[in-house]
Amino acid sequence: MTQWAPPPLGSAPLCFLTLLLLLSADSAVSRHPEPYYGRLIGRLTQYAHGIRGTVYAVDESTIFVRGFAYDGTGPDAYFWVGDTPQPSPEGTLVPYPEDYSSRDPPVLSAHTNSDILLRLPAGKRLRDIKWISVWCRRFTVNFGDVFVGPGLEPPRARVLPEFKRLAHGLRSGNISVLDAKTFYIPNLHYDGAGPDAYFWVGNGTEPNPFGTKVPNEMGSLNPLRGYQGEDIEIQLPGRLTAYDIDWLAVWCVEYRHNFGHVFLPKDLDVPPALGQTKITPAWWYNPTSSTTSQTPYSNTNNCMEVLDKRLQVRWEVQGEQLQVRLAARLRPEHYMAFGLSGADGRPAMLGADVVVAYWDTKTNQPRVADYSISHLAQCDGERGVCPDQRLGGSNDVVLVSGEQKDGITTITYRRPLGAVEPTRDRAILTSRPQSAVAAFGPLNSRREANAHSFMDTTRADVQIDFGAQNEHSCLGLAPAAAGAPAPWPPRIIAGRTRMSARIGPAGGLRGYTPITDNDLDNGYLPGHPSWGIAWYIDDLLIPEIYVERGQTYTFLVEGGDDRTNPAKFHPFYISDSSEGGFGQKREEDQRKQRVFAGVAYDNEGYPYPTAVGRYCEWTHKTVDQWASAATFEEYMATLQLECNEGEAAVLNWTVAHETPDLVYYQCYTHNNLGWKIHVVDPGAPIPMPGGRGADLNAANHIAPHAVPLALLAIMAANMATNMAANMAANMAAR
């Protein structure tokens, strides 16, 4: 058992590192002044009864009165509109409130500083009226009015083009911006096969990872289902408006793929979103935060299990602090996160205030940190899923204790009930339940949290009453998940000087990630995260390639040449980075990579990929069959090769004598598609563990032995011949 407790007073302070990749979004600087209520008509002129208010044209049939005041003592007063030169009995009554239940419209009641939305009745438009009045019908008296200018042009809905068709069968009719928050998408088609796809908005010349999730037509932030010609309406979350964004897309968050998008014009002039478009569930808006109870008391024995009973949360109010204990069967190099949802009534990572906890395997100590989520992307030091301290704020979480026992990691921390930093923190209430969020996920190379999967986060509203006493629903953590299926043995290519490079599926839990595990014999050590596709070299899934120094090798690259479609643009290059993705890295990160082939620089010193050829992909004949394919050969029989027109790119690489012993073939535009290239001296024998060789399929590892490169060439050729024969036999059998 491993235990940890805080050091005694006077000892060196601990540096609490932490992590998480959840999601959120701050709006950019709006192109419209805020707050925006529509086109100004004017102020109500007061004649009697304390009439006051500023009137705006929301759209051609809707009026907004800001800060309306009226003493309510008129016996038969209503909002009244007409087209006569002055307010008169020949006007038309505008009922308020609109949804009255009585037979006749209600008489206008008293108001002191109300915001009122009026809809013109009977098909009238602003162009049909000349004035707006508060009018007493019984005594034909005008209490106050404002005149509509003859040249007034109210904001109107804007029609945009359809979604650009890039992937997964996405298409639609012309999309309309109904108001500053609402989009109407007619005839929407999408195959639903994206693993982590959402409606996505953001800024820039094209869709990118630094965007914001938009709830679907049901107000849900679950990954998108398939659509077959449906007409839907969606609404931007929080304070985000159409004036804050440059594009709307369908985007796969986990794999950073754009399935299709539409751009918003810079001269957008649509109605403000004041509730006139009635599709917004009330719970999409955050209620005004209440004051945290100041009553000091202690609650004991509170416990709840979340995330399918995989995370146990215990809590106790201690004066002005909340003490929380998290317990889970946490994998090595993984975190657990818990905190307040960014919205009341649903699990929202955007705007959430969470604590991330994990066991630091390097120091053998628990770690906790205070995180805020200002954008649904990895922290860049200014926004994203960030530790408060990294943004210049304070870490308001204190580590209390931690232990690892019987496969369960338990970490206890304490945080204030109140919001120490109102822009980053959310207050813990003791007067009513609040929505909470939780997640598991892996740590990245910076020992910050990577994105979690859909199944490892709260998918339904979890309400926790932090002020409750003896609320205990824990039955015990769920047992450890069953072991993953046996991975396919890694393959080796050696002795070949000419190879093809194509794209294919990653092979689920038998393929890319377990193959890239650093040590399959040493329990669970996470391999590289996969985003669904990988390189197939000579039609083998990420084989390890052996090359000799001084020899020239040719790669026929078919990773795609359409730069406008990132989902099918995968230039091939060779680097010392096990992650790849040179083109998406910042300049300072690019300098950390050594590139050996596939990247050149233009006259201004900017890099560009050189191995850009037509697109060829091994695709599924039906659905992904990795779970039922015990061997890679069986899996290949379920795939079919699809190629675009064009030619393969030719990449020639002469291995320099100073090339390190280990380099990697990778994708220029995306992380984690490739794997290892072993560089050896001419004539050197190659150590190969049995069962991981080019044509060795035995699952058991045996003692390493040395095989000359020339012999490996024969072995590889035999393997290719056997594999082709097996595939031909399978095809004939079908």
Automatic annotation (TrEMBL):
InterPro entries: At5g54830-like, DM13_domain, DOH_DOMON, DOMON_domain, Spindle_Org/Thrombomodulin. Keywords: Repeat, Signal. Residues 38-149, 161-265 form the DM13 domain. Residues 309-441 form the DOMON domain. CDD domains: DOMON_DOH. It holds the Pfam family At5g54830. It comes from the Eukaryota. Residues 1-30 form the signal peptide. This is Protein Skeletor. It comes from Iphiclides podalirius.
